[in-house]
Amino acid sequence: MVWLGLIVIALMASVLILFLRPARAAGLFIPMLAMLVCLLAAGFDTATARIPNAITYAAILFGLAMNALASLEAALGGRDVSHLLGTVGMVQAFGGFALCAGIGIVCLTMAGMGGGDLKLMVAMGSMLGFSAVGMMLVWTLAIAVPYALVNLVVRGKLNGVLRIFGSQLLQMVYLRQFGAVAPLSRSSIPLAAPMLAALFCTRAVPSATVWHWFGN
To answer: In whole angstroms, how far apart are CA 45 and each of 13, 41, 115, 117, 132?
Structure first.
């Protein structure tokens, strides 16, 4: 039911923007759904220190299925549905899947990254495709590193604030309180929160502007 709600909200928001801002509304459904999935995952990650498989696996399958339909539509000579939904096709989807899986496995084995964070990264790659998720990963790193440093300086209080907001979010969505499954740590990073912020930055700041900052 929650997944159905996410899809309906993303679809309604896309249609609303289509009427209000037709020139900027194309291809918003998948990005909006990705943001909602990441928001819910961030709620779980900050409140309970885990991300349920029901969120990440469903997002991976949904992203691959939607992009498979986009490739099928393109093979049949159409592009209208793909243009409106924001699907990128199977090549981009598998590229995003492989990129995030590869980076995630390295981080999982060498940097102590959580399995839920890895699966959320793969879900974003499957939904958004190689090009978009690559820029999202750049933003995630740019946000996560300062977050980790600030969290250490304030002795983990930043994680505590996010845990409160995450608990309130889950209570609003599920109408019940979720208890923490792990104690707060000054060294841990709830990576879903930086990913969520990175998605907003990716949409707000064109990639050409980002590369210009680095002198390219």
So the answer is: 25, 6, 11, 9, 23
pLDDT digits (tens, 9 = 90+) for 100-149: 999 988 888 877 788 899 999 999 999 999 999 999 999 999 999 999 99
**Class of residue 215 by CB neighbours under 10 A (exposed 0-12, middle 13-18, buried 19+):** exposed
- Rounded to 5 degrees, φ, ψ at 188 are -80, 150
Evaluate whether 41 touches 55 at the Cβ level (below 8 Å): yes
In three-state form (DSSP H/G/I as H, E/B as E, the rest C), the secondary structure along 152-172 is HHCCCHHHHHHHHHHHHHHHH
Q: Residues 74, 167: contact at Cβ < 8 Å?
A: no
pLDDT (tens digit, 9 = 90+) per residue, 39-98? Answer: 999 999 999 999 999 999 999 999 999 999 988 888 887 776 777 788 999 999 999 999
Phi, psi of 129 (to 5 degrees): 90, 170
Can you say whether residue 31 is alpha, beta or left, with left for phi > 0 and alpha for psi between -120 and 50 degrees? alpha
The whole-angstrom separation of Cα 93 and Cα 57 is: 15
Closest Cα partner for 45 from 171, 174, 189? 189
The dihedral through the CA atoms of 153, 154, 156, 161 has a sign that is negative
